[in-house]
Specification:
3 helices, globular, 33% helix, alpha+beta, five-stranded antiparallel beta sheet
C-alpha cells in the first residue's frame, strides 16, 4: 500500500503542478506543514464501484489490460482495484496484475476532470522483482 500511495502521490504532484494555473513557486510547501497524502484511505462501497466501472469501460484501461495480457500478466479482477481520492477533482486507481513468476504488479490510473491517464506499472507493496 505504501508503494501505491507513493506512486499516486508522485502523480498527484505532477498533475497539480502541470494542471494548475499560476507559478509552481507559489504552490511550494510551507516548512513544517504536512501534505496529508499519507492519510489517504481507499474508497469503498458504491462510490468506489462507480469509479471502478468508469475505469473498466475506458479505452485507456482496455488498452493497458490487453498489452499486459500480451506480456503474460493475469489481471486480478475488478475486486482488486484500489481507489483513493486525494482531492475533489482527482481520483487515483490501482489495478493489480500478476506476472508469470507470481509477482503482483499495480497499474496506476489517474482520473481527473473526466480524463483517464495511465501512470505506469510497478511492483505492488511487499513485492520485489525477480
Amino acid at each position: 500500500m505504501k508503494r501505491v500511495l507513493a506512486l499516486f502521490s508522485a502523480f498527484l504532484m505532477i498533475f497539480l503542478v502541470l494542471g494548475s494555473q499560476g507559478s509552481p513557486v507559489q504552490a511550494a510547501e510551507v516548512p513544517g506543514e504536512e501534505c496529508g497524502c499519507h492519510e489517504l484511505q481507499p474508497l469503498t462501497g458504491s462510490e468506489r464501484n462507480k469509479i471502478v466501472s468508469t475505469l473498466l469501460k475506458s479505452n485507456e484501461f482496455k488498452t493497458v489490460k490487453a498489452e499486459l495480457k500480451g506480456a503474460n500478466y493475469q489481471w486480478d479482477g475488478a475486486h482488486a482495484i484500489e481507489v483513493v481520492q486525494p482531492g475533489p477533482s482527482m481520483t487515483l486507481a490501482g489495478a493489480y496484475f500478476t506476472d508469470q513468476n507470481g509477482t503482483r504488479m499495480v497499474a496506476a490510473f489517474i482520473l481527473m476532470n473526466g480524463n483517464i491517464v495511465y501512470g505506469g506499472l510497478q511492483p505492488a507493496e511487499g513485492e520485489h522483482q525477480h
